[in-house]
Design a protein that fits this description.
6-stranded mixed sheet, alpha/beta, single chain, Tyrosyl-Transfer RNA Synthetase, 16 helices, 3 domains, Structural Genomics Hypothetical 15.5 Kd Protein In mrcA-pckA Intergenic Region, Chain A, 5-stranded mixed sheet, Rossmann fold
């Protein structure tokens, strides 16, 4: 393949490189990406940047948006971002990091999840300027003959270099033949789309490099690879995960999202600024200096909570969330709380909390009473045997759950 001509590396190209590198775990090869950026500026031809999404679950959290944020930054530089919905590859199941074969999804599950992903992507990317694609467009027509020809372009020995495959093989854990197809098909996506750059988490590095290999096999200029780190969750230790309960869902209500962001540690806050904020690096650095010089770190955390909440819920809802948080912190009642009508007075406190959806079960409700975590009109409930008489009152559970209950 003939070498590409060199284009001047201007200050704006260097700035674009700095945007690319911000928060990333690895950019391979950096020199190639710098040349691509210089070429794009000189010729006016935007670069093609892909991120694959297998719609394996319906809801996304802030950890998923780390890569979306990077795509948005590159989109704002004028490049073409391609959110690729893996409706074909989802039927295989990504083996990355797995110690067992992932069960494939049904077509109905994939379609339902893909619609949800698309709606959530709109919250970060400018979808009107993005090139949304589905990999069934070229994977379905490939057929058996094309699949065999594709498989002939990679060896089993190279495939077994993958950590997860190597571990499973060493442990005599079954590896299904179809799992070898996943990285091949992800790599072929880059061939079909003629990508200049592919983004993914650090756990996707093998699959992303497969795209470079196959593009060279098909006579294309190979893409560069940019991996983003996995975001630590609310605990600051484990990666953000719904199963670990340390997540912030991007469809959670504004009050919950705002309060969760404010709950993170001062140390974790700067990590989240780097990976989740759209503020300029210089602005974040200046904020860090102010905190080091004595400014209350809560001020910086409030700015982060406002930015993230406003991104997904808008300014009015964020302002209400901030006001409600301060009211709660001062022991007051938020402006907007759920109105609940119940019958059966007098009603046992455990049943009241369960029926008002302030506790998942009667036993959990009684545990909360025992711990002093339940208030009625501001007074702590200390009696688990309490029967609540008819009337209208504000019930509070913990710091964040409120309901105005009318009991008849």
């Amino acid at each position: 393949m003939p070498s590409a001509p060199d284009f001047p590396v201007t200050d704006s190209v260097r700035e674009a490189m700095a945007v690319s590198l911000r928060g990333c775990a690895e950019l391979l090869p950096e020199a190639d990406w710098l040349r691509k950026l210089a070429r794009a500026q000189a010729t006016g031809a935007p670069l093609r940047i892909k991120f694959g999404l297998d719609p394996t679950a319906p809801d996304l959290h802030l950890g998923h948006t780390v890569v979306f944020n990077k795509m948005r930054q590159l989109q704002d530089l004028g490049h073409t971002v391609i959110p690729l919905i893996g409706d074909f590859t989802s039927m295989i199941g990504d083996p990355s990091g797995r110690n067992s074969t992932r069960p494939p999804l049904t077509r109905e599950q994939i379609e339902d999840n893909a619609r949800t992903y698309f709606d959530q992507l709109r919250l970060v990317l400018d979808i009107e300027r993005a090139e949304v694609r589905y990999n069934s467009e070229w994977s379905d027509p490939l057929g058996a003959r094309g699949m065999i020809q594709l498989a002939a372009r990679y060896t089993v020995a190279r495939m077994m270099e993958r950590d997860d495959f190597a571990r499973r093989f060493a442990a005599n854990t079954p590896i299904s033949v179809h799992e070898f197809l996943y990285p091949l098909m992800q790599g072929y996506d880059s061939v079909a789309l003629k990508c200049d750059l592919e983004l993914g988490g650090t756990d996707q590095k093998f699959n992303l490099l497969m795209g470079r290999h196959l593009q060279q096999e098909y006579g294309q200029e190979p893409q560069c690879v940019l991996t983003m780190p996995l975001l630590e969750g609310l605990d600051g230790i484990e990666k953000m995960s719904k199963s670990k309960g340390n997540y912030v869902g991007i469809t959670e209500d504004a009050n919950t999202m705002y309060a969760k962001v404010l709950s993170i540690s001062d140390t974790l806050m700067w990590r989240w600024y780097e990976l989740l904020s759209f503020r300029a690096s210089a602005e974040i650095a200046a904020l860090q200096r102010e905190v080091r010089d004595g400014r209350n770190p809560k001020d910086a955390k409030v700015l982060l909570a406002r930015e993230i909440t406003e991104r997904f819920h808008g300014e009015p809802a964020t302002a209400r969330a901030a006001r409600d948080f301060e009211l709660r912190a001062a022991g007051g009642i938020p402006d907007e709380i759920d109105e609940v009508a119940l019958a059966g007075a007098p009603l046992a406190i455990g049943q009241l909390l369960k029926q008002a959806r302030l506790a998942p079960s009667t036993s959990e409700a009684l545990r909360l009473v025992e711990q002093g975590g339940v208030r009625i009109d501001g007074a702590v409930v200390g009696d688990k045997a309490l029967k609540v008489a008819a009337g209208t009152f504000v019930v509070q559970v913990g710091k964040r759950k409120f309901a105005r209950v009318t009991l008849r």
